[in-house]
Amino acid sequence: MIHMLNTTDISKLSEAVFETFNLLFVSAIISIPIGLVIGITLALYEKKIFTKNRYLIYILSSLVSIIRSIPFVLLMVIIIPFSFNIFGTSIGFIPSIIALSIIGIATVSRLVEQAVIDINPQIYDLTRSLAATKFQLFKDFIFVEARSSLILAFTSSLVSLLAYSSVVYIIGGGGLGYTAIQIGYYSPVGNSLMWASTIIMIFIVQVIQILGNIFSNYLNKKKRGH
Question: Residue 192 falls within a domain, yes or no?
Fold first, then answer.
């Protein structure tokens, strides 16, 4: 399909790829660290490692569940007034990043929570017997035991963010979704552009998934080697 594109289409496609990577990078930078902290906190509370702030944990868990229950298109619409009141804009990059980051945090939180919960329960008993601090618990036990699962969780989160980024064109976010649908599908001469955008999205997803699997398998073998 690429050879059927003219110079203008290739320029639009290149710009869309840049916009997509920009959306993915910024939203991942925001959502992965925050989601990691929330996910670990929820998991350790469930494992009764954290026993304080019960109401705060309940609120966090409920918010994560509610956000994941809202269709992403509706979430973007809900974000518009907030973005306008705080940042003075209701369309474009900023509201798109806000929406992607919110759904990203919720997604990462749940995947990280599950990865940490799945750790061998004896690890938690060991940390209690050694009177390990919360930092030592994470650094010396959780990180070592769950790191391969965490990489897979981050990989799945990135794939999800990429999928969500394909619809932020609705609020002016641009990206490959815009070239595939607005310029490609709705244009009588945009069929090639639509297919090219779709193929690029598939390629990006496969690269993310393959790299995530390779890194996860490497860490898993390294853990077993020790």
Answer: no
Q: What are the structure tokens assigned to 58, written together?
A: 């309940």
Predicted confidence (pLDDT) per residue in 139-177, tens digit: 777 788 888 999 999 999 999 999 999 999 999 998 998
Res. 225: pLDDT tops 60: no
CATH of the domain at 22: 1.10.3720.10
53, two tokens: 């702030």
Q: Is residue 40 one of the residues assigned to a domain?
A: yes
Contacts of 91 (CB under 8 A, 6+ apart): 80, 171, 172
Chain segment 129-144, per-residue pLDDT in tens: 777 777 777 777 778 8
Contacts of range 66-71, beta carbons closer than 8 Å, 24 or more positions apart: 67/102, 67/103, 67/105, 67/106, 68/103, 68/106, 68/107, 68/110
What distance in Å separates the CA atoms of residue 118 and residue 181, rounded to the nearest whole number? 40
Instruction: Give the separation between CA 221 and CA 142, rounded to whole angstroms.
Output: 16
CA trace torsion 142, 145, 147, 148 (10° rounding): -160
Alpha carbon distance 193, 180 (integer Å): 6
Domain presence at residue 185: no
- Determine the structural domain holding residue 138 and report its residue range: 17-177
> Is 212 domain-assigned?
no
CB–CB of 150/112 below 8 Å? yes
Separation between Cα atoms, residue 159 and residue 111, nearest integer Å:
13
* Total structural domains within the chain: 1
Comparing C-alpha atoms, which of 32, 29, 190, 221 is closest to residue 111? 32
